[in-house]
Design goal:
alpha+beta, 7 strands, 118 residues, globular
């Protein structure tokens, strides 16, 4: 049995439904990536970078589930220097697109869609 992860302070006391190790980027070709953990709560998604990532990027990213326009698994970009060879989650909200590479994108997508429908 593995020890459950302690939710970060960025969740602001909300219940953590699920979490995945993720690589976050706002660039379609996978450049300027930040490693961290993507957390799912009943009301929002929260990305918290690993310790060294906090030095390079802002402390965390958050998006209310109600403001998510679309979430899907995007195919890798056909580009010679693509640093993301696998499919990844593409999340569109408030006119912005964020990409998250997780180990099992189908599982993460199903969990996010279930939380959005509740």
């Amino acid at each position: 049995m593995t020890k459950p992860r302690r939710p970060p302070k960025a969740l602001l006391g909300e219940e953590a439904r699920d979490s995945w190790f993720a690589v976050h980027t706002t660039e379609p070709h996978g450049r300027w990536r930040t490693e961290g953990r993507l957390w799912l709560t009943p009301t929002r998604l929260v990305f918290v970078p690993v310790a060294y990532g906090k030095l390079l990027q802002r402390l965390s990213w958050s998006c209310a589930l109600g403001s998510v326009d679309d979430v899907e698994i995007a195919a890798p970009e056909p580009w010679a220097l693509n640093r993301e060879p696998r499919g990844r989650l593409r999340l569109r909200s408030n006119g912005r697109t964020d990409w998250f590479q997780v180990r099992n994108p189908e599982e993460a997508l199903a969990a996010i869609r279930t939380a959005r429908s509740e």
